[in-house]
Amino acid sequence: MFGQVALAVGVVIVRYIYKALKPPPPKICGTPDGPPVTSPRIKLRDGRHLSYREAGVAKEEAAYKIIVIHGFASSKDQSLPVSQELAEELKLYFLYFDRAGYGESDPNPKRSVKSEAFDIQELADALQLGSKFYVIGISMGGYPAWSCIKYIPQRLAGVALVAPFVHYWWTGFPSDLYKKAFRKLPAVSDQWTFRVAHYAPWLLYWWMTQNLFTSLSFMSGGPSVFSQKDLEILVKTPTVPQVDQEKIRQQGVHESLHRDIMAGYASWEFSPLDLKNPFPDDNGSVHIWQGYEDKMIPFEINRYISEKLPWIKYHEVPDGGHMFLCEPSVCESIIRALVLG
Questions:
Q1: How far apart are the C-alpha atoms of 207 and 204, rounded to whole Å?
Q2: Which of 94, 251, 255, 333 has its C-alpha lying 20 to 30 A from 31's C-alpha?
Q3: 143-173: per-residue pLDDT in tens?
Q4: How many other CB atoms are found less than 10 A from the CB of residue 1?
Q5: For 205-224, what is the mean pLDDT?
Q6: Which residues contact 304 (CB under 8 A, 6 or more apart)?
Q7: Within its chain, how far is the Cα of 295 from the centroid?
């Protein structure tokens, strides 16, 4: 009798664990049970769709064509605070798109650092942007920007990494630098989330959905993750967009947010320190813009990258937090440096 009871309990526990670890299937846009498709999309070679939005001047009139890579828990609907006057002065065309699994872009179960670069290349080709284009990678969108430098450098006219994602297991970095940066994260739970994503990604769905403790402080939106300057920007800057979080995650929180973390913190095929200058003839430039007071992205790692790679132009905003891009004057400086300098 005891053996039967133990077996039954064991089966229940196994089922519970399996259910807790296994994410639900995605609700793909345009399918009978999925959200509607409301934005233009292109079809990739593997059959997936990418949703996009255009802004600025008409593509045919543009002198500079810029693809904007959104960050974590964001989408193509988060616009840069660029005035139409500036867009017309410099003849700027902007292409925003939902990265895989976000918004109305199909999920990619094989999503990786490398796949992000080739999604961008296919998007540019489908919309006939020409042989070269500019890229701006924002926050978590920094890892696709690094991927573009690695895998499609011949397609780039310039790159700006703004408050860019950092990986705590890139090779070639001093261990004490990583330890210092890791300790600066807002919460110990953030450190563990990144460890789980790196060492045990199969556990991340449970880790991010359990209710025993907070897994990622960045998702709480509490004041502890923002600098004083960030809080001021949130209060005073009307251009800070309020992106619909439900729409961002509508195909599944695992397909959007969790896979983003898993791809970013996986073991990379390269380290940024291994990269070669994509513009050896000075026909373009790479920039890192970093806030000294950023509580989400410790400045030490991005500063170290720029010291080791002198072809990267490093801009450290002394009182900047994570949201300095939302200030129109700073955003204009970033755009001008990218396309003119």
A1: 5
A2: 94
A3: 999 999 999 999 999 999 999 999 999 999 9
A4: 5
A5: 87
A6: 173, 174, 177
A7: 16
Strand order in the sheet with 92-97: 41-43, 49-56, 92-97, 64-69, 133-138, 156-162, 286-291, 312-317
Per-residue tokens: 132: 């070269």
Among candidates 58, 79, 187, which has minimal Cα distance to 127? 58
CA distance 102 to 26: 11
Whether 11 shows a pLDDT value over 50: the answer reads no
Place of tokens 């919309």: 127
Q: Which long-range contacts (CB under 8 A, 24 or more apart) does 230-237 make?
A: 230/295, 230/321, 230/322, 230/323, 233/321, 233/323, 233/324, 233/326, 233/327, 234/323, 237/81, 237/326, 237/327, 237/328
CB atoms within 10 A of CB 226: 22
Strand-pair category, 41-43 with 49-56: antiparallel
Cα(121)–Cα(220) distance, integer angstroms: 33
Single-letter amino acid, residue 340: L
Cβ contact 169:198 at 8 Å: yes
d(CA 134, CA 109): 27
Q: Token digits for 306? A: 């720029």
And the tokens for 41? 């999309």
> How far is 279 from 306, CA to CA, in rounded Å?
15
> What pTM did the predictor assign?
0.93
Structure tokens at 69: 């890579």
Average pLDDT, integer, range 218-242? 80
Kindly report, residue by residue over 12-60, the tens digit of the pLDDT.
Answer: 344 445 456 799 999 999 999 999 999 999 999 999 999 999 999 999 9
Q: Is 302 exposed, middle or buried (0-12, 13-18, 19+ CB in 10 A)?
A: buried
